[in-house]
TrEMBL record:
Gene3D superfamilies: Vaccinia Virus protein VP39. One of its GO terms (molecular function) is methyltransferase activity. It comes from Polynucleobacter yangtzensis. This is Ribosomal RNA small subunit methyltransferase G. The keyword S-adenosyl-L-methionine applies.
Length: 222
């Protein structure tokens, strides 16, 4: 995979990636392609589609995440991480961020552990368990929860809530149909903080990143 092909889309995102970042992102996609032939990690095949639909789609959220996650080392949970998207590309570009990848399917967590070692990603942890079980073990521990194509928005928010710190945020990567999914979200329980369009270079597909915060009930008594 050529650096020029990778940079074709990435440079348009304005992320100022280092040569090491690009090399690691290339290696991640190479390993995904190699494992995918045997373990069927993802339905998208081919170098060009992998770059556009996997890697660039995942790191296109970074400008928005950087806007909201301003602490020195935010802790982020990626629910239903699958083949490591968006968490692995984010971890590569943001080594100071801590990412917990939660995935119940063992062959996928085996791949995630493999990539963690191959790329020497010390800022990620892989959990092979159901999201509901992971929430019991790590309640209110995370500054943010993120997911890409895990489940519908209302259910994703329900699953995310136990993980969040009091000021935590949920980042939902969605397509145009997010308007329909938003209709099922209770605005008494959730507040839409931002609805950011995402430009995916060279890809004619609409992407959005919804940022939501739970409406915290006051515990004060009259």
């Amino acid at each position: 995979m050529s650096e020029g092909l990778l940079a074709l889309g990435i440079e348009d995102l304005g992320l100022k990636l280092s040569a090491t970042n690009i090399a690691d992102l290339e290696l991640f996609l190479q390993e995904m392609g190699r494992w995918n032939r045997v373990h069927n990690l993802t339905a998208i095949e081919g170098e060009k589609d992998s770059i556009r639909l996997h890697l660039i789609d995942s790191i296109a959220v970074l400008p928005v995440l950087r806007q909201f996650l301003t602490g020195p080392s935010p802790k982020i949970a990626d629910l239903g991480s699958g083949g490591g998207l968006p968490a692995i590309p984010i971890a590569i570009v943001q080594p100071e961020w801590q990412l917990i990848l939660i995935e119940a399917i063992r062959k996928k967590t085996a791949f995630l552990q493999h990539v963690r070692g191959k790329l020497k990603l010390k800022n990620i942890e892989v959990l092979c368990e159901r999201v509901e079980d992971a929430a019991v073990h790590q309640p209110a521990q995370f500054d943010a929860v993120i997911s890409r194509a895990f489940t519908n928005l209302a259910r994703f928010l329900d699953l995310s809530l136990p993980f969040l710190k009091p000021d935590g945020l949920v980042f939902a990567m969605k397509a145009k149909r997010a308007d329909d999914e938003m209709k099922d979200v209770s605005m008494k329980e959730w507040r839409l903080v931002a609805d950011e369009p995402l430009h995916i270079p060279n890809l004619a597909v609409e992407r959005r990143l919804l940022v939501l915060a739970p409406v915290r009930k006051s515990t004060l008594t009259p």
